[in-house]
Amino acid sequence: MKKLIETIKNIFKIEELRKRLVYTFLLILVYRFGCFVVLPGIDATLLAGLQSRTQEGLVGLLNMFSGGAFGNASIFALGVMPYISASIVIQLLGVFVPYFRKLQMEGESGRKKMNQMTRWLTLVIICIQGPAYMAALHSQIPAAAFVAVNQLGWSNFMFNIVSTIILMAGSMFVMWLGERITDRGIGNGISLIIMIGIVARLPYALMAEIQGKMTAGSGGAILLIVELVLWFFVVVAAIALVQAVRRVPVQYAKRVIGNRQYGGVRQYIPLKINAAGVMPIIFAQALMLFPLIFSRWDATRGLAATLGNYQGFWYNFIFFILIVIFTYFYTAVTVNPTMMAESMKRDGGFIPGVKPGKKTVEYLDSIMSKVTLPGSIFLGIIAILPAIAMIFGVTNAFASFYGGTSLLILVGVVLDTLQQVESYLLMRHYDGLMKTGRLSGRSGM
Q: Based on the domain organization, do 105 and 45 belong to the same domain?
């Protein structure tokens, strides 16, 4: 405890770090305030139906990413999801389209061009998602909730156009907040905004679980303690998954320039066990919504009910298989052994015992295939843990923190932010956040 207090004091002794933390906190407050500002012309007291429908499936994932703004019909309802979708598209284009692959190789200038393209693509996606969201509002909340239409005489078309423009401005403002946090605050801004939305749900979920266990016949305090202990071990396992790497040794040749010698040292390429992050879970959750289409016909309604049961065996079995498949796919897209081998060769590096060029590419590809298998299986297990927790009596709200997207994002962003804080401490010759060793987070979401 004394070590923790001393570390906190050291953090606030560093003026630059203190200013960055305060700046980040203030921008997050602005974001959280905007999550509760309802779209103009909608009666906030009639949104209970919408909030109850945004708790499960892909819609629940969107609501989580927006910090509850999606279910509040807020001006920030679309949140950062359009920006994330645009980033994924640009990233995939960097693999399959030569022009974008060339931009990735151009360094800082190429990165700026790709960021600009991402912003423009975000606007295009918002223009599609905005009207879709407004259509969902009209179908899921009472007509009396649209005050602008019922009392001010606006047409539905005009109201939808104005609301879409507001949603567009809100989403771009959230994106701007994330970029400001990244530039002048601490941590990755977009990731922090998503994490804050997840953390905001934790106190309510925990209180609901405590109240549920304290009722008669629900197990009482003993069962609650067991659940919290198991949750602690799940969090530890998630941290291990996020941080686990396979280090590939790289030897750099000696070079003499003038009177100085460069190179001749051994470094390591850290290949992540889970290089795909949470994307396989997001892709798999989106794909698991397709069986609901079969509920329209009587002959296939039973199949849709079986595949749509979040706690059922077949849903979780297919979900697990899809996560393993998508983990391999997304790892193959994001990790490019050819580019790594070319970069190594250009810098005069080589893997001991492996010939440069094609053999190095094959060696790196072989290692990634081997480490991705346990990583994908572990990721699949963590993804289905919420369903297992619900089967054993954990409330739906708290079970979502037993694994899945919520836990992985929470762990990953916290580790990344703490790593940046620790770098400031070590740079000023203070002790790090841990007594022994270094804290290693992850470089992105």
A: yes
State the 10-residue block means of pLDDT for the chain, 445 residues long.
Answer: 73 83 92 88 75 58 69 84 84 79 78 88 88 82 81 82 91 91 87 85 84 70 86 90 87 67 71 85 75 65 73 86 89 83 81 85 89 90 88 82 82 85 76 56 44
In this prediction, residue 443 carries a pLDDT of: 42
Indicate if 234 and 280 belong to the same structural domain. Answer: yes
Shared domain for 240 and 308, answered yes or no, is yes
- The CATH number for 330's domain is 1.10.3370.10
pLDDT computed for residue 417 by the predictor = 85
- Tell me how many domains the chain contains: 2
* Residue-number span of the structural domain to which 441 is assigned: 215-445
Question: Is 190 in contact with 84 (CB distance < 8 Å)?
Answer: yes
